[in-house]
């Protein structure tokens, strides 16, 4: 039987079902070879010779393929239809070459969807490995290795605490840091808008906004303060108004094109709250199950047969009126389309979500998004009527405008409308029937409710002239028919994963297969944190970016990175030689590396200190020097590095002054540095900041007492408000509550790793509030301990979710443990990843976690999952393999971008 090789066992299972018993389908479990993490794996002096190494886990998979080839030398490489898939096929062929006899048939087949028709058609049209695509992969892999393996050590030596740099990762990080600096440099500008509630002669009400005053058109900042806004309110409130014009214009909205990788990730973020990594993981499973086409693509066109199938589905489900006369054709506007040109779409247009047989909730939701977007892309446009009403006073001194729209035919909007990252200001208000020449009467009391809400704000209201009333941010006529609202210009918003991917796509940075890994890497490196779905740079991310912009400006340039991506695309098209591209890059890059060899850490810190001064030393409220030490008043603050790595702000008067503080505080709070809180029993009680946050300390470290008493500041306590009394309370913990009434053993209250607690012997029970540690009495402590004991017994017997039987026997359960939810089978406990909800986990995902845990550290007495369990899990082993203790250089070199 011919041997067919694909990447994953799930894909192998599906394809084997389609091909039947005439073929043997095996999985390579992803890449089988990689560059070893050591110097010389890419040798620029030997024409960029690359030394590949077979991964230890891959040896058994290659052996299985070699054993199968002993029976039939017909090898068919059926990996994914993109550059990465072509590279895997090339690696397989290189690794299997010794096992192939002369004249053996080796073919490459690709299919954009794992359906029976697509697979059988691909098998009938084999080809050879596309060397141009392989060359583009080799160039990209070598570039990423050379940058990661040579630039990261420079960071370690010159910027303590930095972890790694990457060719595209660092440019992506710069986007986020640049945006944060834009936000910090932004100066808000005040402006006001004036609104009136009007009524038709029939009593129907509508809202209008002032657009002209004193016969001149109002620009955005013409009403720049409350005084001018008050004059405008008086001008409108004191005049009769009449409708001077009504215009209604037809408008239409065309549907969005089908998904490609970047737009799928953006919509999954907006509508489902999925990160790029979670989105691609769910899409991978849908693809391997044969439900959608290949999910790594920047193409938006659809196969003709798929277009016709979509039209048939629209006709059957919604009727002829929702079907355009001719199919919609979409053309990719991107300069650099990848090889898998077709869009991401369902393989069966008639298979709507309500008929989908998928257990995992994330896959179901993502499929629903893909199905709706695809169907909507072939539907009729939405038709509406946009109406504009002009209102003016007879003397022409004031002019107002009311706008609205009426939906005449919903078209594609019946199925799908794209989400928005920020308010696009589309006016969808409905207007009553309004005739030109009719009076527009001011409606009294129209803004009373808004005024009452504004009055509750804890800010100072503006001064109101006679005939008007004022509330914070609002001015209103006495009759409450006309109101002026205060506005401030807003800084650019922080990036979400969706808008970051969109921006990268616009700049030509990265490619569909790399977006998710890039965004994930900068978060894993702790250069960026995600808060309320927004990406915020950490201090170490700012330091790395500032260092790279200062000493390697070309290699974090947006244009340079985009141009290099274009050259990689030209290699894949056969228009450039990959070694020539590498040669030009290395010539300049190696010189830039040499230019930093003599740099001293103090020079680097001074340079970064100067560049980040506006961020590190914001203006003081009292107008004083922001660099003056607040503790001693003599020294100046500057950037320093800690022996343990990382950076902080310290006083130049050290060691006489030991003031330190972190680079910045969360949420814009004023950073709190070291200070003396007072004295107790002749010892100094001080507040300090360490690598794990602020803490209080009794005395100073000495040779005789290297570890003086310390206590961390609990969560919820503001270090800036900490005083001597509270510090002494913390340093006195654990606090004895008294002997237990049953056995006389001491009960103590304290604050530990998991928060406030009471302790009786070896038994612990959490307390809800930190402050209760200092006040809890015996009765309450006994009650809390007893309740914990009861809950503990109940919890042990009650799983969060039952997932059924394991293929090797035994129940699979989702349990709630001390360190979070986990999957339990026999004696194997596998912790759930952070992005996986215990309510949404499927049996397939649970099997994957169990198999990974068993392979990593099999426990004595536990059954080893059999082959059918691994096959049921349907996953690539590398996807669940623990990262292990790799060096940062290795991790970066393997990151790919």
Automatic annotation (TrEMBL):
Q: Which reaction does it catalyse?
A: ATP-independent breakage of single-stranded DNA, followed by passage and rejoining
Kindly indicate whether the keyword Membrane belongs to this entry.
no
For the Toprim domain, which residue ranges apply? 1-114
Site (Interaction with DNA): give the residues.
Answer: 31, 140-141, 144, 156, 296, 525
Q: Where is there biased composition of kind Low complexity?
A: 867-882
Q: Where is the composition biased (Basic residues)?
A: 856-866
Q: What InterPro entries does UniProt report for this protein, alphabetically?
A: Topo_IA (IPR000380), Topo_IA_2 (IPR003601), Topo_IA_AS (IPR023406), Topo_IA_cen (IPR013497), Topo_IA_cen_sub1 (IPR013824), Topo_IA_cen_sub2 (IPR013825), Topo_IA_cen_sub3 (IPR013826), Topo_IA_core_domain (IPR023405)
What keywords are annotated for this sequence in UniProt? DNA-binding, Isomerase, Magnesium, Metal-binding, Topoisomerase, Zinc, Zinc-finger
Enzyme type, top EC level: isomerase
According to the record, the residues making up region (Interaction with DNA) are 164-169
The UniProt function text for this chain reads:
Releases the supercoiling and torsional tension of DNA, which is introduced during the DNA replication and transcription, by transiently cleaving and rejoining one strand of the DNA duplex. Introduces a single-strand break via transesterification at a target site in duplex DNA. The scissile phosphodiester is attacked by the catalytic tyrosine of the enzyme, resulting in the formation of a DNA-(5'-phosphotyrosyl)-enzyme intermediate and the expulsion of a 3'-OH DNA strand. The free DNA strand then undergoes passage around the unbroken strand, thus removing DNA supercoils.
- The molecule here is called DNA topoisomerase 1
What organism does the UniProt record list as the source? Paracoccus siganidrum
């Amino acid at each position: 039987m011919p041997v067919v090789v694909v990447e994953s066992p799930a894909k192998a299972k599906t394809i084997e079902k389609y091909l039947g018993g005439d073929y043997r389908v095996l999985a390579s479990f992803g890449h089988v070879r990689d560059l070893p993490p050591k110097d010389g794996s890419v040798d620029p002096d030997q024409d960029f010779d690359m030394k590949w190494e077979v991964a230890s886990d891959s040896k058994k998979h290659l052996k299985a393929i070699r054993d199968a080839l002993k029976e039939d030398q017909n090898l068919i490489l059926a990996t994914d239809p993109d550059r990465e898939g072509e590279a895997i096929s090339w690696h397989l062929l290189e690794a299997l070459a010794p096992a192939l006899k002369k004249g053996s048939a080796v073919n490459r087949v690709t299919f954009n969807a794992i359906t029976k028709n697509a697979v059988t058609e691909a098998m009938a049209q084999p080809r050879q490995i596309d060397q141009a695509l392989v060359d583009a992969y080799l160039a990209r892999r070598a570039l990423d290795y050379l940058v990661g393996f040579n630039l990261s050590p420079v960071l370690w030596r010159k910027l303590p605490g930095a972890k790694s740099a990457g060719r595209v990762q660092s440019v992506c990080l710069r986007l986020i840091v640049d945006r944060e600096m834009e936000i910090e440099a932004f100066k808000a500008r005040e402006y006001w808008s004036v609104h009136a509630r009007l009524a038709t002669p029939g009593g129907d009400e509508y809202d209008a906004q002032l657009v002209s005053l004193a016969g001149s058109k109002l620009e955005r900042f013409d009403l720049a303060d409350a005084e001018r806004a008050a004059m405008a309110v008086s001008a409108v409130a004191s005049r009769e108004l009449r409708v001077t014009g009504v215009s209604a214009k037809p408008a239409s909205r065309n549907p969005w094109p089908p998904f490609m990788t970047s737009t799928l990730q953006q919509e999954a973020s907006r509508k489902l709250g999925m990160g790029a990594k979670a989105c691609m993981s769910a899409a991978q499973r849908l693809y391997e199950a044969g439900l959608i086409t290949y999910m790594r693509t920047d193409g938006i066109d659809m196969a003709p047969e798929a277009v016709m199938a979509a039209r048939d589905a629209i006709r059957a489900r919604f009727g002829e009126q929702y079907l355009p006369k001719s199919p919609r054709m979409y053309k990719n506007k991107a300069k650099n389309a990848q090889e898998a040109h077709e869009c991401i779409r369902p393989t069966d247009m008639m298979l709507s979500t309500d008929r989908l047989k998928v257990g995992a909730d994330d896959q179901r939701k993502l499929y629903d998004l893909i199905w709706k977007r695809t169907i909507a892309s072939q539907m009729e446009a939405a038709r509406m009527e946009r109406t504009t009403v002009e209102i003016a006073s007879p003397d022409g001194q004031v002019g107002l405008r009311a706008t609205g729209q009426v939906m005449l035919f919903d078209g594609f909007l019946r199925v799908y409308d794209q989400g928005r990252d920020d308010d696009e200001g589309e006016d969808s208000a409905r207007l009553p029937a309004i005739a030109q020449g009719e009076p527009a009467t001011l409606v009294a009391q129209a803004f009373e409710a808004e005024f009452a809400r504004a009055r509750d704000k804890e800010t100072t209201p503006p001064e109101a002239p006679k005939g008007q009333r004022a509330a914070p941010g609002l001015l209103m006529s006495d009759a409450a028919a006309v109101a002026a609202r205060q506005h401030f210009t807003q800084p650019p918003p922080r990036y979400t994963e969706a808008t970051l991917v969109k921006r990268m796509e616009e700049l030509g940075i990265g490619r569909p297969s790399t977006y998710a890994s890039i965004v994930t890497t900068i978060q894993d490196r702790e250069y960026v944190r995600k808060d309320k779905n927004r990406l915020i740079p950490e201090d170490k991310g700012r330091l790395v970016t500032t260092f790279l912009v200062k000493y390697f400006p070309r290699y974090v340039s947006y244009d340079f990175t985009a141009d290099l991506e274009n050259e990689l695309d030209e290699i894949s098209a056969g228009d450039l030689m990959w070694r020539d591209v590498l040669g030009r890059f290395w010539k300049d890059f190696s010189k830039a590396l040499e230019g930093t060899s003599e740099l001293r850490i103090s020079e680097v810190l001074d340079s970064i200190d100067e560049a980040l001064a506006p961020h590190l030393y914001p203006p003081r409220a009292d107008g004083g020097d922001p660099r003056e030490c607040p503790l001693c008043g003599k020294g100046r603050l500057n950037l320093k590095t800690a022996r343990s790595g990382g950076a902080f702000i310290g006083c130049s008067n050290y060691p006489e002054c030991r003031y330190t503080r972190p680079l910045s505080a969360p949420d814009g709070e004023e950073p709190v540095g070291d200070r003396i809180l007072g004295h107790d029993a002749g010892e100094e009680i001080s507040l300090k900041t360490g690598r794990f946050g602020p803490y209080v300390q009794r005395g100073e470290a000495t040779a005789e007492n290297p570890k003086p008493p310390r206590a961390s500041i609990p969560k919820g306590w503001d270090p800036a408000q900490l005083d001597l009394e509270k510090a002494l309370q913390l340093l006195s913990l654990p606090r004895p509550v008294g002997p237990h009434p049953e056995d006389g053993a001491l009960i103590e209250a304290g604050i530990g790793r998991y928060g406030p607690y009471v302790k009786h012997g070896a038994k612990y029970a959490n307390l809800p509030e930190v402050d209760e540690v200092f006040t809890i009495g015996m009765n309450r402590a006994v009650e809390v301990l007893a309740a914990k004991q009861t809950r503990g017994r109940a919890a042990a017997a009650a799983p969060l979710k039952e997932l059924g039987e394991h293929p090797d026997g035994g129940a699979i359960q989702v349990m709630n443990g001390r360190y979070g939810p986990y999957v339990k089978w026999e004696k194997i406990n596998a912790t759930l990843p952070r992005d996986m909800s215990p309510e949404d986990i499927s049996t397939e995902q649970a099997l994957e976690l169990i198999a990974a845990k068993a392979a990593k550290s099999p426990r004595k007495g536990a059954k080893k999952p059999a082959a059918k369990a691994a096959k049921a899990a349907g996953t690539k082993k590398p996807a669940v393999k623990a990262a292990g203790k790799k060096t940062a250089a290795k991790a970066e070199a393997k990151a790919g971008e």
